[in-house]
């Protein structure tokens, strides 16, 4: 089994599907180029049958983005599969991603199909998709709430019909790391598939466990994970790409697998997404949030100034960020003030430092974060009063 984890990015499909994150075709193309620079393996560019705009976005990405495989989602319907194939026709490498709900609640209430009818749809739709693409992914929607033996049967049928990736989505973000580990371990022996067919995990974040669940699935044999930049996606979102990639890299001692991602492009992809969707990630968002490499507390700043590893487990430059990590605010200490003032051309010591520090604390109490412009004004004011 290969130690390489494929990154299937669904920022432009599951991500874009979420309220507040819709993107124009131009914005999708910019984002797709950022994802290609990041070296994701697959870009799910949209759901071609969903709307003419989505079909156009998939076709535009397929035509203009080199490197990753370009995928379109399709229900297990002939019309959807033909729409996906048409939108993907100019892609150098294409994937048709066919899905159908397999859980009892989806079969009974959404699809109104029997167990056998669902299996038959899997058989015929995957086989049809294979007529248009060598690379076909099958997703058993709501796999986590599907009877295990039936899920294994559904995935075996998909593999026999030609699916090359078998995706096991936690559509409603219900599972836990222990449970998904057990499930993937079970599927590893219960599904009848060829050596080259890989398992994939697609986790939603309703309980805040999407990344943890994806990591557990990898430990149990999944060799593709589906994720989105900033973790955008239906409801609480998908597993976040940046967290998954950096967890695998930072804890390679534990996981022993890696992705092909160029992590130094993570900040660029994050900024492109923020611009494309008009939403900045939360300040405390792991990896890419404004606070992810920022230190305001005096004790932390003192440590960081000696050696960043005292309070950081990753280097900002590893994700393409350039920062000294020091945020000047009311919790900052004298070491940080002296260091920042020196960098700004105001070496401070003894009484001079005492005065500056007292004034700095007063300002910080008033305004919170003292940015470079405000700090410069304070230092210049002190200098002119001497
Ligand atoms: O969450 C889900 O089940 C999906 C599938 C279409 C893969 O997004
Ligand atoms: Zn999803």
TrEMBL record:
Pathway: Amino-acid biosynthesis; L-leucine biosynthesis; L-leucine from 3-methyl-2-oxobutanoate: step 1/4. Its EC number is 2.3.3.13. Residues 5-267 form the Pyruvate carboxyltransferase domain. Keywords: Acyltransferase, Amino-acid biosynthesis, Branched-chain amino acid biosynthesis, Leucine biosynthesis, Manganese, Transferase. GO terms for molecular function: 2-isopropylmalate synthase activity. The keyword Manganese applies. It is an enzyme of class 2 (transferase). Belongs to the alpha-IPM synthase/homocitrate synthase family. LeuA type 1 subfamily. This is 2-isopropylmalate synthase. It comes from Sphingomonas piscis. The lineage of its organism: Bacteria, Pseudomonadati, Pseudomonadota, Alphaproteobacteria, Sphingomonadales.
